[in-house]
């Protein structure tokens, strides 16, 4: 495994907490060409990625002899995933590569594996499932973008030829994005491509890149919805570590997809505009500076480091993984923890903001309009109740609300009471 050159840290600095956001690998397609589980090749890549991460964190002192802080890893590792097979399998195979059993962890001779629970992630699933309606609207709107319209106009003949060969009656370019996924799957598994796909692979790839760039994932609102929720969770984990230095677990893994990686990098000003490669890992690390001196001005006790691990070749199972350090704008490699958490607060969302931003457009009025309606409704209700109370008080005195005459309605009621 190839690791990039890492900045030499003072040996006494302690790695207190690590959060890894992990992207899935290539996926098997079901009979409807929908992603299902990881391919065999992707399982191997994910396992190798885990071994690569183990080597990295052994060098940082987080993992020692297969243990974390002297504890068996199942006590010190918490893994969450989207409730989809490919993401669950990515987390499982990554952990298998990171933590092969040692000594008394072995429960079956010859079995180089130990089980880790992978939980359904409430954070990720809320973002993906509860925001699905908004996400679909975003995607639909973006299919009408100027770049996509120009692409369809420029390559209209080639698109029609491709769809004619496939006996596909649609006119949009979404099918080409689906064909691109099929092409990746076939390539990763050394399968023979259909002549039609082979002839149009350049067009299909170009369509895929355009669709990726034009998704409305990159709007300010969507970044706050899809990245802010995850970053807020990371902020909570680090804040807890400040208060309790012995907090467990020290390693948290979130198995998600390439979009999540792109959203988070965009929110932090780190995104390069390219679709993250399969098995990409975004590292968030909280360190304690053992040489911290409270009497030294502008010197803080904790700092955050970000790294990115990526596969150098999407199509090659044996491709090496490279880890590089990321620098958040306004920070150094070692970013002051309070500065970093302040940046997270800029994009993090409250529950109220989440509900507002996540609601499908036009399905709910904006927050200001809702408040105006509530205030107006309250005033109308108060006036109505006052009028009713006034009417009842006048009626009890035998008067009508008009001209002080005897209320015939009251008389009728009195007559009914006599029976």
Offer a concise description of the structure:
With 419 residues, the chain is of the alpha/beta class.
Regions with little confidence, pLDDT below 50 for 5+ residues: 1-10, 362-368, 399-419
Structural class: alpha/beta
CATH topology of the largest domain: Rossmann fold
Q: Distance N terminus to C terminus?
A: 98 Å
Total separate domains? 2
What is the N-to-C succession of helices and strands? Answer: EEEHEEHEHEHHHHHHHHHEHEEEEHHHH
Kindly provide the name of the CATH class of the largest domain: Alpha Beta
Helical content class: 40-55%
Which architecture of the largest domain per CATH?
Answer: 3-Layer(aba) Sandwich
Task: Give the number of helices.
Answer: 17
- CATH H-level superfamily title of the largest domain: Phosphoglycerate mutase-like
* Mean of pLDDT: 77
Sketch the major β-sheet.
Answer: 8 strands, mixed
Number of strands: 12
- Tell me the β content: 5-15%
Task: Name the overall outline.
Answer: globular
Radius of gyration: 30 Å
């Amino acid at each position: 495994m190839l690791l990039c050159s890492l900045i030499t840290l003072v040996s006494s600095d302690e790695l207190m907490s690590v959060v890894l956001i992990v992207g899935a690998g290539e996926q098997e397609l079901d009979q409807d060409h929908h992603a299902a589980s990881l391919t065999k090749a992707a399982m191997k890549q994910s396992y190798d990625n885990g071994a690569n991460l183990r080597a990295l964190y052994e060098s940082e002192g987080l993992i020692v002899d297969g243990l974390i802080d002297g504890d068996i890893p199942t006590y010190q590792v918490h893994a969450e995933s989207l409730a989809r097979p490919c993401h669950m399998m990515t987390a499982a195979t990554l952990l298998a590569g990171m933590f092969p059993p040692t000594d008394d962890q072995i429960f079956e001779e010859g079995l180089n594996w130990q089980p880790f629970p992978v939980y359904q992630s409430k954070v990720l699933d809320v973002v993906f499932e509860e925001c699905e309606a908004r996400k679909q609207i975003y995607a639909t709107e973006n299919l009408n973008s100027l770049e996509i319209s120009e692409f369809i106009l420029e390559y209209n003949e080639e698109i029609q030829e491709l769809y004619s060969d496939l006996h596909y009656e649609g006119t949009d370019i979404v099918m080409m994005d689906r064909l691109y996924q099929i092409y990746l799957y076939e390539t990763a598994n050394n399968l023979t491509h259909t002549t039609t796909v082979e002839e149009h692979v350049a067009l299909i790839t170009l369509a895929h890149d355009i669709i990726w760039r034009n998704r409305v994932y990159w709007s300010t609102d969507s970044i706050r919805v899809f990245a802010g929720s995850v970053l807020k969770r990371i902020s909570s984990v680090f804040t807890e570590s400040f208060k309790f230095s012995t907090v467990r677990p020290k390693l948290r893994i979130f198995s998600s997809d390439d979009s999540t990686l792109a959203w988070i990098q965009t929110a932090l000003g780190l995104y390069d505009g390219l679709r993250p490669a399969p098995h990409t890992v975004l590292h968030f690390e909280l360190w304690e500076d053992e040489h911290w001196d409270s009497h030294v001005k502008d010197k803080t006790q904790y700092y955050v480091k970000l790294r990115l691990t990526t596969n150098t070749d999407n199509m090659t199972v044996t491709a090496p993984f490279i880890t590089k350090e990321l620098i958040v704008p306004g920070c150094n490699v070692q970013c002051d923890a309070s500065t970093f958490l302040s940046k997270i607060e800029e994009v993090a969302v409250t529950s109220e903001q989440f509900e507002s931003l996540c609601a499908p457009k036009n399905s709910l009025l904006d927050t200001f309009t809702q408040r105006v309606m509530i205030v107006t409704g309250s005033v109308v209700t108060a006036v109505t109740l006052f009028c009713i109370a006034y009417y009842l008080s006048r009626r009890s005195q035998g008067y009508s609300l008009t001209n002080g005459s005897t209320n015939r309605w009251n008389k009728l009621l009195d007559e009914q009471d006599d029976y």
